[in-house]
Every structure is written in structure tokens, then in C-alpha cells.
Amino acid sequence: MFLTTALAWLLLAAPEAPLYESQLIFPPEDFHNHSSSIVETPEGDLITCWFHGQGERKDDSLIILGARKNKGENTWSPPFLMADNKGLPDQNCTLFIDNDGRLYMFWISSIDNLVRSYFLKYVSSTDFEGDGPPIWDWQDAIFCLPTDAEQAFTEGLAKRIEEVESSTKLTPERRAYYLSRADEIRSVIDDKLFQRLGWMPRQPPLMLDDKRMMLGLYSDTFNCSMFAFTEDAGKTWEFSRPLTQRGIQPSTVRKENGDLVAFMRDSPVVRRAESSDGGLNWQEVPIDILNSGSSVAALALKNGTWILAVNDVPDGRHRLTLYLSDDEGKTWPIQRALEDLKPDMGTGSYPTLIQTADGTIHCTYTHEDKEKFEGKTIKHVRINEAWIRSDERPE
What is the pTM of this model? Predict the structure, then answer.
């Protein structure tokens, strides 16, 4: 009895062995496959989605595809159709399951192939276990009404111009690009149509309580982020004040005290903002982690550790690094490359992170590796925290 108890204690006390598994969700192909998302269903299956076509907003053939990996299976299903607004480019899908077990997919279509006309939609399902795609039982559009839009955009534009002109980190090309946008933004600040269209999702929502969901949005027109809230499963929405700082594609985590922290894509560094009023108002809190102007993903693990996935090179998406924080984002001492390809030889970008019921961490991202294959695919990696903290390298 003593030996059995001691052995059990030793097994529990033993450090977790590093875990790394990876596979391509579908064979690389000569199509643009990008901006993936992943969820775990209550029964333990995995569902992913991404957009597929020849390009981006100017490609009217773009559709949303998905795939499923049932619990206990070793391979992903062949891709299946998740959404198609025929004749319009469908992009930027993200999946989420709320506290009532309802599956959502948010995405956008561009009405006139320009960023100003991105039209935000969502579908939901309560029938998504088993094989094949979810059976959608509700769909709707989200009409965005940003709080105090004109004043927020005006403040944000002035702040960004001052910041760009004084920056010593921006490349000349980036500085010229940001300044060239100023007149364009100024010309539409007071236009209600531009204020309300063009908002896009990227990362999954966050449940603030049993009913209140917060969805991060961003605008390429105004180069900023905003948050949408619903307490009735998407039937009605309210909106925060747009953030006055630069930074798009927010990925949000919550501190133990309830404050919210959003990490956003920008160049040359990641942007971070914090909210103490449930996401309605935000204040910038600088962070010194490089970003090449590519989507970032943040995740708070069940044990309190935070993960940030970011392309942390000055220019490019060939290296994707995982950062760990044990103090809710104050410091990020642990770093581990998930992909580290030669420049111009491939990409690992647009990550989405989840932690599944078994405690492991899953990441899907856009992937190409010109040294190993031709084409582009979505890669799925399953790891644990011990692997990020270890020195073992993936094959």
C-alpha cells in the first residue's frame, strides 16, 4: 500500500515531459489558404476554418473552408465548405463556443472589393458534433455603431501622426506608408458609412460572464481596433469606443482581477492596451516585443501562464515565436520558436491558440516551407507548456 501511494505521488510530482506534435491539415496547394481558427467541441473533436481562394479582397472566388479531427482520430477530414457569399470574397473567419455550448463562426465579405466595404456576418449552431461541417441554425449580420466614433478617430489620427513623425524604429518605407494614409483617413472621419462598415474579426471572442461575449474587431480604414458585446447570443450588439492607438486584430486575455489586456498587430512592435471597465474604454500600455506587422495570438492558460504567439522579426513572417509570461504580461522571459524558416523561404503566420480539456495547447497557422514543399496549407501543432520551456527542437 505504501509503495503504491509513493509511486502515485512520484508520478504526480514528476515534471511534465515536453510534447510536440504537428501535421498539415491538408496537402499544400497552389491556393491562398489563410487566417485559420480552431475550437474544441464538448465531445473532444477539433474543428478548424480558414479562407481559401486565389487572393484576398479582390478575389470574388474566396470561400470559407473547414476541417474536422474527431476525438481519437489521427488525421483531419478532407476540407468542407463552411460559408460562401457567392460572388463576394469571404475572409477572416473565427470560431468560438460560448458557455451555453453554441458554436459561432464570424467572418466578413467585401461588397466592392475594398476594405471600406467589409460586411460583418456570423452563423451559429447547436448541431456540430459528428462528421462533416456544422449545421448552421442561425445567421445574421452585425451592424457596427462605434461609440463616439468621430472624436475617437480624430484623436487617434493626431496621435499616430505625432508618433510616426517622432519614431526612430520605423523603416523609411513604413513611415512613408503611415503618413500617406493620414489624408485618406481624415477625409472619411465624419462619414457614418465608413465609420460603420469595414470592421473585421480575427481572433475568437472572450466570455466576460455567463452571457456577455466580447468580440474583438478592427478596421483597415482607420487602422485601429474596437470591441463588440452581446448578452443574447448575438441578437443585439453594443460597441466600445474605438481605440485611439494604432494596432489591429486584437487578441484578448483577462487578468485575475478582471481587467482585460488586448495584444494587437503592428510594426515594428506589438501593441498592447488594457481595460478596467469591461472593454468599453482602453489605455495603451507599451510592450517591447517585435512584430513585423502580422497577426498575433494571446492565450491565458488554466494555470495562469500567458502565451503570446508573434512574428517577432523586423520584416517578414518566416519566424513565429511563442513567448511565456508568469506575471500576467509584465515580463516575457521564456521564448521558443514554433517556426524559424529562412527569409523568403516560407511562412508561419496568423496563429490562433486554444487550450483543450486535456490541458494541451493547440495552434493553427498559415504555413509554407519552400525547402520542403510547394504551395500553402494550414498547419496544426499540439504542444504543452513544458515543450515551450524546454530546449528540445521540433523535427
Answer: 0.93
Q: Which residue has the cell 448552421?
A: 136
Q: Which three cell numbers stand for residue 4?
A: 503504491
How far apart are the C-alpha atoms of 338 and 352, rounded to whole Å?
13
Amino acid at 394: P
Give me the numbers of helices (H) and strands (E) for the chain, helices first please.
Answer: 5, 25
Could you give the residue ranges of the DSSP H alpha helices within the chain? 2-13, 149-166, 172-186, 192-196, 385-389
Which pLDDT tens digit goes with each residue over 172-188? 887 888 788 888 899 99
- 342 Cβ neighbours under 8 A, 6+ residues apart: 318, 371
Size of the chain in residues: 395
Q: Residue 225: helix, strand or coil by DSSP? A: strand
Enter the DSSP assignment of 232: S
pLDDT digits (tens, 9 = 90+) for 336-384: 999 999 999 999 999 999 999 999 999 999 999 999 999 999 999 999 9
**Angstrom distance (rounded) from CA 51 to CA 254:** 28
- CA separation for the pair 38, 365 (Å, rounded): 10
Is pLDDT at 155 greater than 60 in this prediction?
yes
| Residue 385 backbone zone (phi > 0: left; psi -120 to 50: alpha; other: beta) | alpha
Strands (E), 266-360: 271-275, 283-284, 297-300, 306-310, 319-325, 334-340, 346-355
Omega before 268 cis (within 30°)? yes
Taking the C-alpha atoms of residue 81 and residue 248, their distance in angstroms, rounded to an integer, is 27
Q: What are phi and psi of 25, to 5 degrees?
A: -70, -30
Cβ contact 241:229 at 8 Å: no
Domain boundaries defined on the chain: 34-142+200-204, 289-395
CA atoms of 217 and 226, how far apart (whole Å): 5
**pLDDT at 322 exceeding the cut of 80:** yes
Q: How many CA atoms lie within 13 A of 96 on its CB side?
A: 21
User: Residue 222: which of 252, 186, 267 has the closest Cα?
Assistant: 186
Q: Which three cell numbers stand for residue 76?
A: 483531419
